[in-house]
Amino acid sequence: MMDVGLDGTTYEHCGRGVVDGSTNIDLLGNRTPRSCVIGTREGNRSGRVVARSTRRRRVMEHNEISRRGVVAGAAAMGALAAVGTGVATSASAANPVLKAGSRGSSVTALQKRLNSLGYWCGTPDGVFGALTVQAVLAIQKVAGLGRDGVVGAKTWGAVNRGTRPGSRRGGNRMEVDKRRQIVMVVRGGSVKYIFNTSTGNGELFTYYGRKIRATTPSGEFRINRRGSNGWDYGALGGLWRPFYFNGGIAFHGSASIPAYPASHGCCRLSVSAQNFLIANRLLYIGEPVSVY
């Protein structure tokens, strides 16, 4: 019995394979060396083995080609992904997340920028310490952001935009914004420095047997006296170098200046900030104070 192969050659049928005396043609039209004897069972079995072997080889070759295509495609996608990641990494590298304990050139750049905007944080040293936390809290309050002291994308945005508050009263004075919990040093009608503060928490406390509500009254005042040149200790705790402007309410240094109202009525500042204000005559007897 004769068959015609895919290349037009006539072949003699051998069992279930096809031969031309020297080669087999499998079911895919592939020519392989003859491995059967015409008309014998062995020939039939060999033909089937050759056909299966050839099909398996073809499938493997096809799979290898597909695998290479997939690998090449994956490599290309990986290259594109790497390019995308590089852009994102560059952007985040310029403004990384910074918090207490962070160190390096990004912290130094942040400190310089905060100081330039009036959010005093001392001499830039590349260490995200307590003064930097205070300055970050202040700008977060002015920008209306969450008050956590961590410099993430939104806080970086406020820093990069140059977010600053304005004065309500003008002239030369101290202004206390109770809603935002900040103290501002105003000179020539413009805000020169901004500090994080903590004012009266509104709760009742006992002072020498009297119940008093912890408030920081709004109004116009003047600094009228100062305390010691160190810690003043009393029934309510310690006040560092206080400057009083309304009875027992003062600007003073404290070891605790949270982002929320927590005092008995005074305006808490960091010890370093209080020292800075006094050293630069930004707090003095007779200075106007506006509280709102």
CATH domain topology of the largest domain: L,D-transpeptidase catalytic domain-like
Helix content: 25-40%
Q: Given the structure, what is the number of helices? A: 5
Biggest sheet character: 5 strands, mixed
What gap, in angstroms, lies between the N and C termini? 110 Å
Proportion of beta-strand residues: 25-35%
Q: Indicate the overall shape.
A: globular
Strands, total number: 17
Number of domains: 3
Q: Uncertain segments of ≥5 residues (pLDDT<50)? A: 1-54, 69-91
The top-level CATH class of the largest domain is: Mainly Beta
Secondary-structure element order, N to C: EEEEEHHHHEEEEEEEEEEEHE
Q: From the alpha-carbon coordinates, what is the Rg to the nearest angstrom?
A: 41 Å
Overall mean pLDDT stands at 80
> What is the CATH architecture assignment of the largest domain?
Beta Barrel
Name the CATH superfamily assignment of the largest domain: L,D-transpeptidase catalytic domain-like
Name the structural class: alpha+beta
Strand order within the widest beta sheet: 8-7-6-17-11
Descriptive labels:
disordered N terminus, 34% helix, five-stranded mixed β-sheet, 292 residues, L,D-transpeptidase catalytic domain-like, alpha+beta, 26% strand, 3 domains, Muramoyl-pentapeptide Carboxypeptidase, domain 1, 5 helices
